[in-house]
Amino acid sequence: MDKQIKGDPLAISPGVGKASWTNKLKRSRIAGPSMSAVRDELSSHAIYPATLAVHAGSHDDPSTGAVGTPIYQTSTFILGEEQYRAIEEGYARDRFIYSRYGNPSQWAVQEKVAALEGAESALVFSSGMAAISASVLAMLDKGAHIISSNELYGGTYSFFHHELPSLGFSVTYVDPRDLAGIEAAIRPNTMMLYFEAMTNPLLKIVDIPALSEIAKKHHLRLVIDATFVSPLGCRTLEHGADLVIHSASKYLNGHSDLIAGVCVGSRKYIDQIWPRLLAFGGCLDPHACFLLERGLKTLAIRMRAHEEGASQVAHFLSSHPKVQQVFYPGLETHPDHLLAKKLLKNMAGMVTFAVENDAAAIKLLDTLTLMRQATSLGGVESLVSLPYNTSHAAFTADQRLRMGIPPGCVRMSIGIEDPRDLIEDLSSALATL
Q: Which of 190, 217, 264, 318 ranks highest by number of CB atoms within 10 Å?
């Protein structure tokens, strides 16, 4: 690896002891950190997402010629003049010093995710919640107010509802599709809009461009959790978000064998989040980075299979006499179908439907043989769960009804199996109701 990495602040003023940009308030931010010029070479061509998923961030090992990115299983790195200067002059994130600060295995994944999102920079975390907590806290001033969805992922809601108030922050929860209500909730101390691109379990699509207009009008930061849609489903930053967060345990990794999170955005914002990563200690270890990078390489073909399978399963369910309702944005009956067609390039693999009641839903799950009862989503295997006793167990039946979640609600994450086998499994189970 070259001694001087592209984008090195010292490259701006070669031979100068102090980096020339340190006293310039309006200095431009560079993309990075980066171990090679591979991403720059890729971005100069008309590269498709499937190609970026394989090649961006990956580099051939200069010592052995290994095609796959090695696992840099080390806690620390040898220090020299270059590293000491980076610490002294404030660009330690651009050098390998200690694996909590940065590691080549982390950089490879970060470059790949940033390329897929069309972003300048990214950070990987030890979980999706580590990414959410560090990113949100880095973007807020003392006493700030957040406007968020009343249909949040349970872990995010718990953090917003229990942890943020204890730190002096406040949160207002609103209907994610009620733009007037969102704008009406803005206060003088509001700093952030935080929403999920696709909600759980009803798969509502959030109008990110409209949220971006509200955010810009009121000088707010827009943060979007895009876990349910993936970078191949929606280039969230291009629609106006300031930051996009993913639970990488889901579609990005895709094999249900890893807990990880990522945050993606401009170098300016990611540099603000990086100190929180250091302080909270939620770094991703090198072997987990290897697993995540390997999973990302097949993201494009997996997302095509997820979408194809989900579409076929949703259409089957929509015509079944024992199914009360189907929620899938690829169906014309979904209330956000037109918005989904406008914003999403891939509808992903989530399908939610309702049978007569919760007892029938339990019987259905117990009768399925191919689909497995488990939480999480985005893996190669199809998973099924009931919101009333998992993600939304803390709510009463009346509260769930007000949220639009009907009795007998079943949430499925369609994997990459042959849809015909999944439909046969569902057909046999539904016949027992």
A: 264
Q: How far apart are CA 224 and CA 246, in angstroms?
A: 9
How far is 42 from 48, CA to CA, in rounded Å? 10
Q: Classify 209 in phi/psi space as left (phi over 0), alpha (psi -120 to 50) or beta.
A: alpha
Quick one: 283 and 307 in the same domain? no
Do residue 290 and residue 310 come from a single domain? Answer: no
Looking at residue 205, the DSSP 8-state letter turns out to be B
Provide the pLDDT for residue 75: 97
Rounded distance between C-alpha atoms, residue 415 and residue 377, angstroms: 9
Please give the helix or strand (H or E) that residue 112 lies within, else none: helix 104-117
* Cα(378)–Cα(226) distance, integer angstroms: 12
Same domain for 261 and 323?
no
For residues 111 and 243, state if they share a domain.
yes
Residue appearing with tokens 């953090």: 159
Question: pLDDT digits over 335-362, tens only?
Answer: 999 999 999 999 999 999 999 999 999 9
Q: Which of 31, 6, 22, 19 is nearest to 271 (CA)?
A: 31
* Domain stops at, among 238, 267, 297: 297
Phi, psi angles (nearest 5°) of residue 261: -145, 160
* Average predicted confidence (pLDDT) for the chain: 90
> Which value, to the nearest 10 degrees, does the dihedral of the CA atoms of residues 85, 89, 91, 94 take?
-20
Contact 103, 72 (CB under 8 A): yes
d(CA 227, CA 234): 10
**How many domains would you assign to the chain?**
2
Q: How many CB atoms lie within 10 A of CB 62?
A: 10
Q: Over the stretch 88-140, which tens digit does the pLDDT of each residue have?
A: 998 899 999 999 999 999 999 999 999 999 999 999 999 999 999 999 999 99
Query: Residue 2: inside a domain, yes or no?
Result: no
The verdict on 287 and 320 lying in the same domain is no
| DSSP β-ladder status, 383-385 and 409-413 | antiparallel
14 within domain boundaries: yes
CA–CA dist 51, 106 (Å, integer): 20
For the entire predicted model, the pTM comes to 0.90
Share of the chain above pLDDT 90, in %: 79
φ and ψ at residue 191, rounded to 5 degrees? -120, -20
CATH number at residue 70: 3.40.640.10
Give the dihedral sign, CA 112/105/221/134.
positive
Beta strands in 143-260 (DSSP E): 145-149, 170-174, 190-196, 221-225, 243-247
